[in-house]
Amino acid sequence: MLEHGGRLRAAAQAFGIPLSDWLDLSTGIAPYGFEVPAIRADVWTRLPEAEDGLETAARDYYHAESLLPVAGSQAAIQILPRLRQQLRVGVVSPCYGEHAEAWRREGHRLVEISEGEVPRVLDQLDVLVVVNPNNPTGRLLNPALLLDWHARLAVRGGWLIVDEAFMDPTPAQSLATHSHLPGLIVLRSFGKFFAMAGARLGFVLADAVLLGQLDDALGPWSVAGPSRFIGSVLLANRQAQCEQRERLLADAERLARLLTSHDLPPAGGCGLFQWVITEQSNRLYGFLAERGILVRRYRSPSSLRFGLPPDEQGWTRLSSAFAKFQEIRTWAP
Fold it and tell me: What is the tally of structural domains in the chain?
């Protein structure tokens, strides 16, 4: 299993700090969410049903013609490579590691490429996978560029898979409205923006034929009834979504300023995290963890991803830790 953020219990054990004393900035999940509706008793006692309003609410939210709810976008990442055989697959990297691993696991010919290499190799690929905004770099690609790549793939029956797990703060950049086009597959995560990662809910936006194949592969009742109920309510709450989006974008800018003020200027970011390239990543990761602050560490390139603090206490705690680290770094021989 690949390493992921959010492994708070493992960090608590490794650093000997009680679970309740941690500030977890490792996941890129919104640290504050929506008012969760009370779940009716029958939602727990009945099997999930597709006619409960979730698909309608999701189509309205994403402005998509057709979609399929899944148990988090991770479920689709694992299943999509099983729908076709012996493909030439390109993954724009660095990005979320599960994409390359899923295609490699199913025996496809995989190449991890940079964004700049795409135009040169695209006509040799059957599938191109792009994370947009990228994780962990925060890089946001222009929709027109992605649609051009899709057109070059689709004419040969190829796929462009765009993982938009972090797109909700910037919905105008989404390809969701184009997701009905054959060969274009858009993945969306519910848990990150809505701060409901534990619900394990996501959506695949694509043409109806492909969604039918994916639905058959997943089998019945792939999303739990309580998750479907909560999703249908929160996806329809436009006012709360607007407030969440404004707060996340403001806090992302605040985090970028805080990092810069402590000589850790972000190399990229989005509405849910900031990414810092630094040769001090291992040292800073350990320094913060020893103080009960967990961030996401990457080894290539040497970098750290910082999620958003949940409250003013968290902001103060992070700022104080940065100040102490800067002091030690300045006076170190």
Answer: 2
DSSP code, position 172: G
H-state helical runs in the chain: 8-15, 41-45, 54-62, 73-79, 98-105, 118-121, 143-154, 208-218, 225-234, 238-261, 281-289, 312-331
- 297 and 245 in one domain? yes
Give 281's Cβ-side CA count (13 Å radius).
19
Q: What is the mean pLDDT of residues 32-41?
A: 93
Tell whether 266 is covered by a domain: yes
Q: Is the pTM of this model over 0.85?
A: yes
In a domain, 2, yes or no: no
Domain that holds residue 284: 8-33+239-331
CA–CA dist 132, 174 (Å, integer): 8
**Rounded-to-integer distance, Cα 4 and Cα 11, Å:** 12
Token pair of 83 as six digits: 């729908």
CATH number of the domain enclosing 321: 3.90.1150.10
pLDDT digits (tens, 9 = 90+) for 126-160: 999 999 999 999 999 999 999 999 999 999 999 99
